Amino acid sequence: MLVALACLILVPEAGLAQSRNRAPPPSGSSDEDDRPQPHQTRPLPDIVARVQSTPPYNGMDYIGVAGFETRSMIYVLRFLDGRQVVVVHVDARSGRIVGRAP
């Protein structure tokens, strides 16, 4: 019984000692790699600004977000080109334009 009690007391402390001695996970510097992790998305204002600075969208008026496709992590943005609404699909992780209609 005394041995079992000693194991209960010593085992958690051994785990704490191991976690204290473990090196912290490497953190990527934004200088080294500006790409987000596969599960991370870029902030929406950054994505909108990136699309607005890309021709032909730089000559269009930004209307707003039409949606977000969670499974594929795609923002659906709307722009106005004269009287025509243009829907632009943008990868939320990279900010890259992946589609357009019409």
UniProtKB/TrEMBL annotation:
Give the source's domain of life in one word: Bacteria
Please give the residue ranges the record annotates as the region Disordered. 17-46
Protein's name according to its UniProt entry: PepSY domain-containing protein
**Species name:** Sphingomonas lacunae
